[in-house]
Amino acid sequence: MSIDYDRLEPIPQRDEPYHIVVTAAHHDDIEFGVAGSVARWIRDEGATVTYVIITDGGAGSNDPDMTREALVELRRAEQDEAAARVGVSDVRYLGYPDGCLQATLDLRRDITRIIRETKAYRVVCQDPTTYFVHASYINHPDHRAAGEATVYAAFPSAETRPIFPELLAEGYEPHKIGELYLNLTQAPTHYHDISCAIELKMAALGAHASQIGAGEDYENGAKKWVMQSNRDGGKMVGVDYAEYFRVLKFDAERKSWYEEEMERRQRAAALK
After folding, report:
1. For residues 208 and 79, what is the distance between their CA atoms, to the nearest angstrom?
2. What is the Cβ-side half-sphere exposure of residue 101, based on CA atoms within 13 angstroms?
3. Other C-beta atoms lying within 10 Å of the C-beta of residue 98
4. Residue 107 and residue 54: Cα distance in Å, rounded?
5. Predicted local confidence at residue 143, as pLDDT
6. How far apart are CA 215 and CA 75, in angstroms?
7. Does CATH number 3.40.50.10320 belong to domain 5-271?
8. Pairing mode, if any, of strands 242-249 and 19-24?
9. 57 within 8 A of 71, measured Cβ to Cβ
10. What is the mean pLDDT of each run of 10 residues along the chain (272 residues)?
11. How far apart are CA 83 and CA 190, in angstroms?
12. Which of 133, 162, 189, 250 has the fewest CB atoms within 10 Å, i.e. the most exposed one?
C-alpha cells in the first residue's frame, strides 16, 4: 500500500492533562513502535499513561536452556524498566500465552475493564488490519489479535452499558474515549515529531536485552535499525525523527467523506 505523505497531519499538542491507555501484544512492542510519542505526551503535555501488555512474553526465545517461566519473569522486569525510562509507572500484565493470542471476548472484557477504570481519553493499539509491512515482514498474529480486541473494547464495549454487565457489578461504569490511535499501520493519517524524544525512546528500547541484546549487539542492531527507520520516517514529513499513526476521533463533530476530501485537496493545493 502506498502512503501519501503529503496528506499526513502533525499530531496536535493537547493543553490539558489527560490519560492514555497503550495496549500491545508483547513486552517490547511499545518501545519499537510508540515510546517516543509516549515520552512526549508525558513530558510535554502532562499525560498519565497506562501500559497494557497482553501476553506473558514466554515465547520470546529459542534458547533451549531458557525456561518459559524464567523468560516471563525476565521480560516483565525489562518492561517495567523500559516503561520507567519514559515516565510510565502503571504497567498491567494480562498474562495471555505468547504466540497464540486470539481476540476473544475474555480479552476484550479485560481491556474494556481497564479503559473504564482509567477513563482514558486516548487509546493506542496495534492496527489489526496490517498483514504485511513493506516487502519483508509478516505482521505477527498476536499483534493483530491485540489490536482487534482493543479496537472493539474501545468501541462498542467501553461505552455501552449492556455489554459486559459483570463490569457494572464490579463498579466500572461505561466510558466513551476521545481518540483511538493505531500504530504499525499501513494507512497512517498523522505523524508525530519525536526528534526531542528519540534518545528516551532508545533508552527504553535498550531495556529489552533478552530480545535485542546489549552493548555492541544492541548499538549495531536494533538501535541502529529503529533510529534509521524513525529518521527515514521523519524525512518523509520534514522532521528529524517521526512515528506514524492512524487516528480516529470521537470527540469532534463527524465529517462526511466529501468534507474530508475537500479539506485534503485544500491542504494539498496550499503545499504547491
Report:
1. 7
2. 30
3. 21
4. 8
5. 98
6. 18
7. yes
8. unpaired
9. yes
10. 86 94 98 98 97 96 89 97 98 97 98 98 98 89 98 98 98 98 96 98 98 94 96 97 97 80 77 65
11. 24
12. 162
Q: Do residues 60 and 26 touch, judged by C-beta distance below 8 A? A: yes
In this structure, what C-alpha cell is assigned to residue 94? 494480562
Cell matching residue 231? 529518521
Place of cell 518523509: 236
CA distances from 151 to 109, 179, 181, 192 (A): 12, 11, 10, 21
**What is residue 57's predicted lDDT score, i.e. its pLDDT?**
96
137-138 and 132-133: which strand pairing? antiparallel
3-state secondary structure the chain: CCCCHHHCEECCCCCCCCEEEEEECCCCHHHHHCHHHHHHHHHHHCCEEEEEEEECCCCCCCCCCCCHHHHHHHHHHHHHHHHHHHCCCEEEEEEECCCCCCCCHHHHHHHHHHHHHHCCCEEEEECCCCCEECCCEECCHHHHHHHHHHHHHHHHHCCCCCCCHHHHHCCCCCCCCCEEEEECCCCCCEEEECHHHHHHHHHHHCCCHHHHCCCHHHHCCHHHHHHHHHHHHHHHHCCCCEEEEEEEECCCCCCCHHHHHHHHHHHHHHHC
Contacts of residue 155, Cβ cutoff 8 Å, sequence gap at least 6: 177, 180, 250
Retrieve residue 131's grid coordinates. 498483514
Hey, what's the cell of 159?
461505552
Which residues, in sequence order, are CB contacts of 51 under 8 Å at separation 6+? 22, 23, 24, 30, 79, 83, 88, 90, 91, 92
Contact 163, 157 (CB under 8 A): yes
In a 13 Å sphere around the CA of 257, the CA atoms on its Cβ side amount to 0
The strand pairing partners of 154, in sequence order, are none
CA distances from 143 to 153, 162, 196 (A): 15, 28, 28
